[in-house]
Amino acid sequence: MNKNVILTLLAALMLTCAACAPTQEQGVAKEQNVAEEQNVAEEQNVAEEQGVAEEQGVAEERNAIFEALDVDQNSTISKEEAGASDALQLSFESADANQDGNLDAAEYAAIMTPAAEVK
Length: 119
Fold this sequence. Notes:
Mean pLDDT: 78
CATH topology of the domain at 34-114: Recoverin, domain 1
Order of helices and strands: HHEHHEH
Low-confidence stretches: none
Structural class: mainly alpha
């Protein structure tokens, strides 16, 4: 084979390989995409952790209010004890699911938990 033909074929092969190989810019872009995906994942983890912490904070606050309203410390809020809160007094009857005249912690939590949080 002629030397010029070999060189021409070799040059064509090199151009084809160069066109198929990722460029440095493509490599950098891919690394940036990976880094962005990792950042998004980290942000989601932080948001989830914050959401859990907020839910725990809300539950702790709700429990503290329940305990404060439960003056006789019998783990229920009577209708009389509910009188300390106008809102609770107004919703007492509907909140007392078992109609025993007292709100237990679950009944109290059910009315104090916004509908969006109920799972």
